[in-house]
Amino acid sequence: MQVLVNAGFGILFGAGLYVIGVPNPALWGVLAGILRIVPYVGTTIAATLPIALSLAVFDGWLRPLCVFLLVTGLELIIANFIEPWLYGAAWESLPWRCWFRPSFGPFCGDRRG
Question: What are the structural domain ranges in the chain?
Fold first, then answer.
């Protein structure tokens, strides 16, 4: 399941980079999909390289800002909505329990917290 989510992230990221006009969007999309497997720093590393490239290639700040907003928006949507929904369905659980489990686990009927 995680491989499919990361592949989808890479495809959307590459398509977004293509629309923005960053060189080699397929390379950055594949790299982002692979690096997203690494917790915490994978997406950051995958975003840093195309942002640096767009800073070097384009004049101005608009396109690097668009790359930053693309990766931030994709990560926020996928990590906070898509993954809990998909993983909750795989665990036969409700998505809201995945969202609130770290803070309100004991109140939702989960002793682990």
Answer: 2-108
